[in-house]
Design a protein that fits this description.
The protein is α+β, with helices and mostly antiparallel strands. The protein has nine helices and seven strands; from the N terminus they run E-E-H-E-E-E-E-E-H-H-H-H-H-H-H-H. The radius of gyration is 20 Å and the shape is elongated. The structure holds iron/sulfur cluster and FE2/S2 (inorganic) cluster.
Length: 252
């Protein structure tokens, strides 16, 4: 396949970025999207040019490091698929592909396609630790967990923190991510003692970091590579309401 790429190039956080056009010749349809970028980068390095910076790690769809807007869609055209698991067979010979970084005030561009997602880490840190002493692994495993709660908690825990939900949302809201993180602990018995103070703390930091509010657009869930359901947002909002009734504060 021969492709034309329009890639966002930005030297650093302060520099002005621009879309730069590259040709990507002889691309195998069996390559992943990131392997295709590797090939382009090898060509750029051979020509003495700066390679395109992009985030990646596992390349197996499990770490959440990769992420870019591909033709305006977070992680590209395939549903429930990270950019690293997207294969070039989903494009056609001669295609033009526009590649941009996540766009959100809370995710400033570091370089090219790499953005700073440390705001997510600060939200998770605000969730704190659970205070329950579960003993050793056998004791923890002996705590009965209702099947429905275990299944839902596992669904929520599938979130890999990639940030596609924020990038896709017109409000740059992090509600889907935060709801997944709040819910996977809030559904389990071990997560109950801090269930309500946790939701207040995490949402407070989410707001401080500059993420927008949820207006039920649904694009977050549509682009989520782990298909996290918007039901978790409703669940988080219910917990937040209960927290308000209980008068929970961050340090409780
Ligand atoms: S909710 Fe989905 S899109 Fe958002 S960070 Fe988690 S895995 Fe990524
Ligand atoms: S590189 Fe780990 S999810 Fe894509």
């Amino acid at each position: 396949m021969n492709l034309t790429l329009h890639v966002w190039r930005q030297k650093d956080a302060k520099a002005e970025g621009t879309l730069t056009t590259y040709v990507a010749p002889d691309i195998s349809p069996d390559m992943s999207f990131l392997e295709m970028l590797d090939v382009v980068n090898e060509g750029l390095i051979e020509q003495g040019q700066e390679p395109i910076a992009f985030d990646h790690d596992c390349r197996e769809g499990i770490c959440g490091m990769c992420g870019m807007m591909i033709n305006g869609v977070a992680h590209g055209p395939e549903r429930a698929t990270t950019a690293c698991q997207l294969h070039m067979r989903h494009f056609r010979d001669g295609d033009d592909i526009t590649i941009e970084p996540w766009r959100a005030q809370a995710f400033p561009v570091i370089k090219d396609l790499v953005v700073d997602r440390s705001a997510f880490d600060r939200i998770v840190a605000a969730g704190g630790f659970i205070s329950v002493s579960t003993g050793g692994a056998p004791d923890a495993n002996a705590i009965p967990v209702p099947k429905a709660a275990a299944d839902q908690a596992m669904d929520a825990a599938a979130c890999i923190g990639c940030g596609a939900c924020v990038a896709a949302c017109p409000n740059a809201s992090a509600m889907l991510f935060v709801a997944a993180k709040v819910s996977h602990l809030g559904l389990l018995p071990q997560g109950q003692p801090e269930r309500y103070s946790r939701v207040v703390s995490m949402i407070e930091v989410m707001d401080q970091e500059g993420f927008g509010g949820c207006t039920n657009i649904g694009e977050c869930s549509a682009v989520c590579p782990k298909e996290i359901s918007m039901d978790f947002i409703a669940r988080m909002n219910r917990d937040l309401l209960v927290a308000a009734v209980k008068g929970k504060r961050i340090d409780e």
